[in-house]
Amino acid sequence: MKRFFAATALTSLLATGAFAATEEQATLINTYAPDVDVSMLTDQQVIEAMAIANSGDSDNHKREGIETIAMNDAAPSTFSEEQIAQIEEYLPAEQVAMLTDEQRGEALAIINGASTDDNVRAQLEALEADITPALTPAELSRVSTLAPDADLTVLTAEQVSQIRALIYTDENDAQLQGRLMDVLS
């Protein structure tokens, strides 16, 4: 128990500075949870995983704890250029730009978890069929201006297509606003 409190105190101290997981940290985390992609963890998740890995708990408890941390908020809110480039090795850049953060996280998990390029491509093709294309930031901004109370987080693929068709027309804002509300309701 004392180790846990010491680890928690250390975690609090280390949480103030941002750093990427070192190779040694990744190795230690993967010793207890080999299926965790350490490169996808936030700095805070790495700190928490290291505290668990260095605790006196059993290996099973360490694995469960680290996997729980990795499952929580696993998709980062921003992606590095390297991560985007990694996805673009398998999907066109235009398609990657329209993926939500969650979808990008899923794509990276597939890329990093599959054993061969053929497996990656097959899994991404299956995922692609389930992907609802996201509106670009500029499109979201335009729709938010015209329909400020609309919930744009739960759009279907059909709604996204209809919205895109509408906002790229020559209609005035009043006409667009009414038609957008019809699509969003």
How would you summarize what this structure contains?
With 185 residues, the chain is mainly α.
Descriptive key words:
disordered N terminus, 11 helices, single chain, mainly alpha, 3 domains
State the domain count.
3
Number of strands: 0
What series of H and E elements makes up the topology? HHHHHHHHHHH
What is the subunit organization of this protein? single chain
Description:
The chain is 65% helix and 0% strand. The protein is built from 11 helices and no strands. The model is unreliable at 1-19 (pLDDT under 50).
Please outline the helices and strands.
Layout (H helix, E strand, L loop, with lengths): L1 H13 L8 H10 L10 H11 L5 H13 L9 H8 L4 H5 L3 H13 L3 H14 L6 H10 L10 H11 L5 H12 L1
